[in-house]
Amino acid sequence: MIPMLLGVSLLAFALLQLSPGDPLAAQRNNPQVPDELIRRIERQYGFDKPFPEQYALWLGNVFHGNLGYSFKYKRPVADVLWERLSATLLLALFSSGLAWLVAVPLGVWSALRRGEWIDKTVSVIAFVGMSLPSFFLALLLLYAATMMPELPLLGRLPIGGLTSADFDSMGWLHRVWDVFLHLLIPGTVLAVGALAGLQRIARGSMLEVLRQPYVIAARSRGLSEGAILWRHAFRNAANPLLTLLGFEFSALLSGAAFTEIITSWPGLGLVALEAVRAKDLFLVMATVLMGSLLLLLGNLLSDLLLAWNDPRVKLR
Amino acid sequence: MSLLDVRDLRVSFPVSGGLFGRAKTWIKAVDGINLSLAPRQTLGLVGESGCGKSTTGRAILRLLEADTGTISVDGTDVRALTQADLRAFRRHMQLVMQDPMSALDPRCTAFQAVSEGLEVHKLAPRDQWRDRVRELFDLVGLSDEHLDRYPHEFSGGQRQRIGIARALAVEPKLLVLDEPVSALDVSVQAQIVNLLEDIQERMGVGYLFVAHDLGVVRHISHRIAVMYLGRIVEEGSAEEICQSPRHPYTQMLLSSVPGMGRGKKIMAPPMGELPSPSNPPSGCVFHPRCPMATGACQKERPTLVESNDGRRLACPVV
Predict the structure, then answer these.
(1) What's the CATH code of the domain at B249?
(2) Phi–psi pair at B38, nearest 5 degrees
(3) Who among B98, B106, B120 is closest to A222 (CB)?
(4) Angstrom distances, CA of residue A230 to CA of A62, A63, A238, B97
(5) Within chain A, where are the H helices?
(6) At residue B19, does pLDDT exceed 70?
(7) Cβ(B62)–Cβ(B79) under 8 Å?
(8) pLDDT, tens only, A140-174
(9) Of A67, A79, A171, B74, which one has the greatest count of Cβ atoms within 10 A?
(10) CB A106 within 8 Å of CB A117
């Protein structure tokens, strides 16, 4: 895990060095900032040193818990990242929860009704969902939220951001509701993208398991179809889904950038893009590191779930 | 009264063909067979793969639905049972499967697998399950330390023992053994066959023993029925079938078993492939592979004729 993080960070650092421009470009172009000050900043952050030394310096700081300073946001990187991370985490949890709640029952249902009209209908919808680009769906939903009449119960959905302008004056219940309303559009967009694939895999692995001799053996012992389904079939069909969970979750954390940008969700994706565009070295490095860390954590999570679900998987 | 009585059983499967899978043809997997098994006895059902012997076993247990025919198990018409009654009746007829690797749920310990039948059919209160399963383990030659292990921790032979214990847990009267030893090593095969004989003696359960290997079936069976392409071609006592086979197909099957059929009219092992059951040959289904076939065999379908000594044979030539 550690060697992998080191490799990723080295690669990202090198790529940033090779690309044109530098983090202090804005300051350099500002005639009011004296050259002397820029040189002092360069010395302070080690930008005047050769590449390997800069990397070593950065790495040392990271090990001491210092992620550096963001020149774009003019705040410590850790502060910027922290609030963005929680927004992204919230979005990822919401959308993957939504996708799972819908996709897994649908997949199991399709498998049980294989070849019937319900299975075919769900398949068509799943393929449409899989083929629809997320940015397009996001735009469609934003358009609908603005142009269509108000929804019952929910009212007019907010079309961007994490909270409403009057968030600070709300009670806590109202705040939760407000964030939930803001989550709906980006959450749905991400869920639709993940849902289709999940439904197909849930259906496929369920079909696979339903053919297994131990399912036939369970039926021959007189178990009810419900008991067969939940006790023997579903738990065995869940393995590929749990493996996928880790990937899905980390992909949502790092790969939600498009959706975050279009729905102006203040998450990691948006901040990563802005950081790269501004060549905000330390911020870029921190988002890269965070992304890989989350991917690894996602895989760890799915490994733990697998071990919990399957007695054949032993953790060493 | 016989334990199992099967009359004119027919099972067919749809096979879709054509460009969009619209054109349906039917495969007659089981094409009108009669079987009967006395209590505490073993009937061996033998034939090549694809001849419909496993389908027959599944249809008897109503794990798949037959087209026509009656199946009576211990006097109950199995095909007439409602779903709820069928589930309750299943405790009287159990199945042991071929592949012990996939016949056990990888997520259930041996104890869970065996005790499930007790739970479903409410045969013992929960606090007695453990003792009951211990008894069953003792019966099939497993020890207490095996109770809480998962299937992947067992060898093939041990898993088959668990499969047998699982089927016996509900004290069935009829056990359908679907190629119970063909996935095992030869040395283990003998152990399992001996175990099954032992159990029959102790518990008085009747076996329908489905296998492709006459050598295995011979030792355990009282009677043997030979099946070819969905039909029974010959039936008789195990002794008779193995000592003096009459049907050309039975003779071929015997000659393909090493050490059997020697010193008798030697016949070559079956030539050629089993024809497709979706398009069976006319007349006697065996005639394309039969060395004794005459012109009449291509036209007339032979009936299974019972002779005075209780043997049944579907071949007018011999």
Answers:
(1) 3.40.50.300
(2) -80, 155
(3) B120
(4) 47, 47, 11, 22
(5) 2-18, 25-29, 35-45, 51-63, 77-112, 117-131, 134-147, 172-210, 213-220, 225-227, 235-255, 257-262, 268-277, 281-309
(6) no
(7) yes
(8) 888 888 887 777 777 777 777 777 777 777 788 88
(9) A67
(10) no
A216 contacts B107? CB cut-off 8 A: no
ipTM: 0.86
Chain A residues with CB-CB distance to B105 below 8 A: 214, 218, 232, 236
Q: How far apart are CA A197 and CA A126, in angstroms?
A: 7
Number of domains in chain B: 1
pLDDT (tens digit per residue) in A16-42: 878 777 777 777 777 888 888 888 888
* Domain ranges, ordered by start, for chain A: 2-66, 78-309
Beta-carbon contacts of A74 under 8 Å, excluding residues fewer than 6 positions away, are none
Query: Dihedral through CA B237, CA B241, CA B244, CA B247, nearest 10?
Result: 130
Reduced to 3 states (helix: H, G, I; strand: E, B; else coil), residue B66 is coil
Tokens of A238: 């869940």
Residue that the structure tokens 């104890």 belong to: B111
CA distance B175 to B165: 12
In a domain, B230, yes or no: yes
B289 in any annotated domain: no
User: Nearest residue on chain A to B58, judged by CA atoms?
Assistant: A220
pTM for this one? 0.80
**Residue partners of B19: CB distance under 8 A and separation at least 6:** none
In which domain, by residue range, is B126 found? 4-16+25-268
In a domain, B284, yes or no: no
| Interface mutation target, options A214, A232, A306, A313, chain B, most CBs of B under 10 Å | A214
Average pLDDT of the residues in B69-97? 94
> Which amino acid belongs to residue B108?
C
| Residue B111 lies inside a defined structural domain of this protein | yes
- Taking only the tens place, the pLDDT of each residue in A258-297 is 888 888 888 888 888 888 888 888 888 888 888 788 778 8
User: Is a pLDDT exceeding 90 seen at residue A231?
Assistant: no
Read off the DSSP letter of residue B81. -
Query: The domain A78-309 belongs to what CATH superfamily?
Result: MetI-like (1.10.3720.10)
Interatomic CA distance for residues A106 and A95, integer angstroms = 16
State how beta strands B4-17 and B93-96 pair.
unpaired
Q: Is A182 on the interface with B (CB under 8 A)?
A: no
Q: Which long-range contacts (CB under 8 A, 24 or more apart) does B304-313 make?
A: B304/B34, B304/B231, B304/B232, B304/B233, B304/B235, B309/B236, B309/B240, B310/B236, B310/B237, B311/B234, B311/B235, B311/B236, B311/B237, B311/B240, B311/B246, B312/B232, B312/B234, B312/B235, B312/B236, B313/B233, B313/B234, B313/B235, B313/B246, B313/B247
Question: Rounded distance, CA A43 to CA A61, Å?
Answer: 15
Q: How far is Cα A198 from Cα A106, in angstroms, rounded to an integer?
A: 10
**Interchain CB distance below 8 Å, A223 and B166:** no
Q: Which tokens belong to A282?
A: 């330390």
**Closest-CA residue of chain A to B151:** A312
Chain B CB within 8 Å of residue A124 CB:
no
Q: How far apart are CA B208 and CA B210, in angstroms?
A: 6
Q: Does A311 touch chain B (CB under 8 A)?
A: yes
Best CA proximity match to A111, nearest among A221, A224, A219, A228: A228
In angstroms, what CA-CA distances link B110 with A50, B144, B146, B159, B168? 65, 10, 7, 9, 14
